[in-house]
Design a protein that fits this description.
The chain has about 240 residues and is mainly beta. Helix content is about 10%, strand content about 30%. It has one domain: Jelly Rolls. The longest helix is centred in the C-terminal third of the chain and has 13 residues.
Length: about 240
C-alpha cells in the first residue's frame, strides 16, 4: 500500500487521469473493493445495520426512503481515489449521488439532454461547483466517476485550516479540476437529514480526524450501482464497525 500512496501523492490532482474507456473497469493495485461483480459488498444502512437495497448480479439499486436510505461504507479513509459506476433509470430525474465523508456530494442526475449545466447537474460538486461540461450519458448506459479527493484539514477546535480539493473524471471527461471546498453546504447530507446514533458517532470522529466513509445516496430514484472501489492515499484508512468504538 505504501508504494501506491507515494505514487498518488506525487501525481497530485493535475496529473490524475484514470482509464474510463471500457466498463466495467478493473480495479488497480491497492484498491479496496466496496462492491464487486459477485455482489460482495461492505456497505451498511444509515443505522449501521444491513442494507435493504436490491442486489443481483453485482448491481445494487437505490431504494427510496424519503432521502434517508443512503448506504454507508464500512471503510473509512482520509484522502483517496474513488471509483463508482452507475446507470440512470429510464424514467424520472435519476437523482442520486456519491457522498464523500457524508459531507460532499458528487451529483448524479439525468442531465444528458441539457445544453447548460449547473451545480444541480451530474458531475457537479453539489453546492460548490458546476461541472465544466456535460459528460452525462443517456439513461440505460453505464456511466463512471473517478474521483480524486483530498479532505479538508481542521485544527483542534474543528476549524478548517486547509480547504479540501477534488478532481472528477466523468465518462472520459474532466468535469472538476482541482476544485476547492470548505464547510459542507447541503442541508440534506446524511449528518443533517435523517441522521442516526450510528452516524452521529461517525460525524464526530470525522470532524476530529478528517477520515470518513463514502455514501451512495437515496434520492427517491432507482439508480443502479456496480464496481465501486476506493484506493486510499495514506495510512489513515480503516474498517469502522458498529459498536467498535
Amino acid at each position: 500500500m505504501l508504494s501506491c500512496c507515494l505514487v498518488w501523492l506525487s501525481l497530485g490532482q493535475s496529473d490524475f487521469k484514470p482509464e474510463q474507456g471500457k466498463l466495467p473497469a478493473p480495479p488497480p493495485p491497492g484498491a479496496i473493493r466496496l462492491l464487486d461483480e459477485a455482489g460482495n459488498h461492505s456497505f451498511l444502512s444509515m443505522s449501521g445495520g444491513k442494507v435493504n437495497w436490491p442486489l443481483a448480479d453485482g448491481v445494487m439499486v437505490s431504494t427510496p426512503g424519503q432521502n434517508k436510505n443512503h448506504i454507508v461504507s464500512r471503510l473509512h479513509f482520509r484522502d483517496a481515489d474513488i471509483h463508482v459506476e452507475f446507470m440512470l433509470p429510464p424514467k424520472g430525474p435519476g437523482n442520486s449521488g456519491v457522498y464523500i465523508h457524508g459531507n460532499y456530494e458528487i451529483q448524479i442526475l439525468n442531465s444528458s439532454a441539457k445544453e447548460k449545466v449547473t451545480q444541480d447537474d451530474a458531475g457537479a460538486l453539489y453546492g460548490f461547483a458546476a461541472p465544466k461540461e456535460n459528460a452525462c450519458r443517456k439513461p440505460g448506459d453505464w456511466q463512471v466517476f473517478d474521483i480524486r479527493y483530498r479532505a479538508p484539514r481542521r485544527d483542534e477546535a474543528g476549524k478548517i485550516t486547509e480547504k479540501g480539493v477534488v478532481t472528477v473524471w466523468f465518462n472520459g471527461r474532466k468535469v472538476q479540476d482541482g476544485t476547492t471546498f470548505g464547510e459542507p453546504r447541503s442541508v440534506f447530507h446524511p449528518f443533517r437529514h435523517g441522521t442516526t446514533p450510528y452516524l452521529e458517532k461517525i460525524r464526530d470522529r470525522q470532524r476530529a480526524t478528517s477520515t470518513g466513509p463514502v455514501f451512495l445516496q437515496d434520492h427517491g430514484n432507482p439508480v443502479q450501482f456496480r464496481n465501486v472501489w476506493v484506493v486510499p492515499a495514506d495510512s489513515k484508512s480503516f474498517t469502522y464497525e458498529p459498536g467498535g468504538e
